[in-house]
Structure of tRNA-guanine(15) transglycosylase:
Amino acid sequence: MGDFEVKEEDLAGRIGKLETSHGILETPAFFPVVNVLRKEISIKDVMAVGFNSIITNAYILKKNNIVKQDIHKELDFNSIIMTDSGAYQILEYGNIEANNREIVEYQNQIKPDIAVILDVPTGKLEDREEAKMTVDETLRRAKDVESIINTENIIWTHPIQGGRFLDLLQYSAVEANKREKYKLLALGSPTVLMEKYDYDTLIDMIFTVRSSISRGKPLHLFGGGLPHLIPFAVALGVDSFDSASYILYARDNRYITRSRTLKLEEIDSFPCSCPVCSRYTPQELLEMDESERTRLLAIHNLYKILEEIRETKIAIKEGRLFEYLQEKAFSHPSVYSAFKRLLKYAEYLEKYDPRVKGEIKGLFLYDENSIKRPEIIRHHRYLDLIKPMHDKAIVICGDKFAQPFILDPFILKIVKEKYMEADIYIAYPFYGLIPVLVSESYPLSQFEIPKSLSESVIRISSDKANSILKAKYKKVELIECENSKLHIMPI
């Protein structure tokens, strides 16, 4: 129980399979929050959208005596159920009428597939000592119940706290990672950041946690329910999410798209073809009874979240997650800021990005951000490491030549005549220099670039080429470089 197998990887993200008592959970996965006290949307509605996993609150179930024994039978849901512990209620109200051991024993009794101890969330605490208390108390509580948790049928989750204090977050993650009985780790308290559009800090938090724990342990993100942020979290290594955003937004007449949220009153026509949007107009929804409108909006919002999860998986399988993040980045200035913050961790993303992928896809290179993608980072590292065969380099500016460069008759003629006396390169945007003799290798001839390049791409590419040439060669001869996009300096 709790075995996790990675099937596909791209950047630091992956598609995996987590074994649970009620089937295999394919990650990245989303758990819609279901509050059984509210009847706006039923579990059957959630299932009909296409979800085979839900999360509900064990504290609410216990307090209201709703589930007594088998949660799957009593909720009539024979698939994967995760139960949260009541920590959200602590965050909202300061305390609850149950302690950690009671909540754990209750979850042992009702047997969800995945359960969570009663942690103490950091939330939006600004005082470091108070934040440290939430970390220490959560760690203490997790250790306190290790002897009583049922690990035979249940995957137990160890929350990681610390909030925006990254050193506390790292300490919490490292300590939680040592607890072998906890097969799932979870980053808590991101909701307050998302409400403020503070996505930069969230990116830092996810990186801090994911880089501090074992790659073999899946990572859950509590409250991660915004489609435009899901692929960024996945790229850093988050494996599952939960959120009530779909229903909370619906109650407020907010309509989720994969790039932003809209107010229902401001929409003339729906940009979606889900069953709700195909059947109704915005005006018809506005004229409905509030409970039915909320239900239908919630169903639509779930379709958008599921669509985003599926699209992210497709991007991973195709090896184009970086390009997908670039597309998503322009949905909102805060999302673009998150993308730029993620690029701070480009070396980390490259470390876990697979070198060999199944079906080769050509790279789409757009701007200076593309220089931070793993394939380009590796190429630049390769240029730094290769030892020159000669003290002279011949650089052919590649603007006029098609890939693969080695097959161009003009270049091939130079290679045949000169390869015994000089190392021969193609100068090209993004790559800087491409050694001609390996120019057929992926991805040195499998890429597309814009016809018009930014000054920063030209400058970075030129600087990389010139620094390599200056460091390794006594003489550099330039060919076809008079009107080149790059500025290569002869030696």
